Amino acid sequence: MARNGAFPRRRASEGADWLDLCQANVEEAHVLAVDDSLVDRKVIERLLKISSFKVTAVDSGLRALQFLGLDGKKSPIDFHSLKVDLIITDYCMPGMTGYELLKRIKGSSALREIPVVVMSSENVVARIDRCLEEGAEDFIVKPVKLSDVRRLKDYMVRGCQPNSGGKNHQKRKQLHGSATSSSSPLPSVSSSRSRSPLVDTPAAPCSPSSLESPTRRLRMTSCE
Amino acid sequence: MDVAQLKRQLIAFTELLYREGFLDEQFNQLQQLQDENNPNFVAEVVTLFFEDAERILNELANNLDQQSVDFKKVDAHVHQLKGSSSSIGAQRIQRVCIIFRTVCNEKNVEGCLKCLQQLKHEYALMKSKLETLFNLEQQILAAGGPPSI
């Protein structure tokens, strides 16, 4: 059983050496999760809480923007008390897609510093590239696991500069390794996931661009 | 039946579900998120999934009953169900969804109806198996044993 929730809290009370401060920062980190699926929201919320994040989960890009104060309406709420340290959003959502939300956030001087991570059930190179180019820190293939969420701390503890768009070559190489592409013959098994063979067909609510040709995803055996 | 026997039953039954493809690794992930502070997490998520799935199956039946089928809507619903079944580890349901989307893409109404039947069948099976699983867990709890494997 996961004990992640218990450990950081004990550390925070034991004094203030550097590691404790880092843990304390991560402990208080507030994540805004955006997903239109109720099931997925419940899972991501739990994954985040068990990893010691504070969570606000909303069901649409529009609500995310409202929460972030970007909807143009004056909000009486003090923004600082609702400070968001990371945004994790589903890609495929009706209305505003996760990609559109990403663009809005990175296009805002007030919010562009907030790291954004995109989740998607479709593991396609063009989609990953598009998100990274727009400034996403990472691209998580659903279903989201604990190990994915634990990685999120990297975007906050080190205080690294958020991806300023197009320069995340390392990350792109890493993600390409496990993604499908019509041009590459065999994806390398760099991620420990099992996936059933899939013919990637365009999804109605978020139709991919002409770059995302249907590809067959190969079964990758789990290393766990 | 004593706790040890019940636990053996639970383990054997769970292993069977994994072997027969009803569950995959993601279900195990969910179980790891359950602890004494959230003792019903898995059951809660699964319940949400059941409600969601039933709603979608009804919508699909409606969509496919139309004179002129809106395949975009059908695909959108199947995409949703594929997502949520993947999130809880309902592998067999997820797989039917994948086939369903291909058939939908071909605008094949007959094929879609067959897939819907298959989905309903798999859903009913899944529901019954998970209910048995939760039942066993409840029995173990009642007999004084720890809640999960």
Describe the structure.
- The complex is a heterodimer of chains A (224) and B (149).
- In chain A, α1 packs across α2, α4 packs parallel to α5 and α6 runs antiparallel to α9.
- In chain A, α5 links the parallel β3 and β4.
- Chain A is built from 9 helices and 7 strands.
- Chain A is of the alpha/beta class and 224 residues long.
- The relative contact order of chain A is 0.12.
- Helix content of chain A is 33%, strand content 12%.
- In chain B, 78% of the residues lie in helices and 0% in strands.
- Chain B is built from 6 helices and no strands.
- The longest helix of chain B is centred in the C-terminal third of the chain and has 34 residues.
- The two termini of chain B are 17 Å apart.
- At the A-B interface, α3 and β6 of A face α2, α3, α4 and α5 of B.
- Chain A: This is Response regulatory domain-containing protein.
Which percent band covers the strand fraction of chain A?
Answer: 5-15%
Uncertain spans of chain B, ≥5 residues at pLDDT below 50? Answer: none
How big is the Rg of chain A? 18 Å
Largest interface: A-B, 32 and 39 residues
Enumerate how many helices of chain B there are, as a single number: 6
Q: Give the helix proportion of chain B (percent range).
A: over 70%
Mean pLDDT of chain A comes to 73
Count of DSSP H/I helices of chain A: 9
Helix content of chain A: 25-40%
Q: Sheet bearing the most strands of chain A, described?
A: 5 strands, parallel
Find the structural class of chain B using helix and strand composition.
Answer: mainly alpha
User: Structural class, from secondary structure content of chain A?
Assistant: alpha/beta
Instruction: Tell how many strands the DSSP assignment of chain B holds.
Output: 0
Shape of chain A: globular
Task: Name the helix and strand elements of chain B from N-terminus to C-terminus, one letter apiece.
Answer: HHHHHH
Q: Give the low-confidence spans of chain A.
A: 2-14, 182-205, 208-224
End-to-end Cα distance of chain B: 17 Å
Q: Work out the radius of gyration of chain B.
A: 17 Å
Beta-strand content bin of chain B: under 5%
Distance separating the two termini of chain A: 16 Å
The gross shape of chain B turns out to be: elongated
Keywords (chain A): Nucleus, Phosphoprotein, Transcription, Transcription regulation, Two-component regulatory system
InterPro entries (chain A): ARR-like, CheY-like_superfamily, Sig_transdc_resp-reg_receiver
Pfam family, one (chain A): Response_reg
GO biological process, one term (chain A): cytokinin-activated signaling pathway
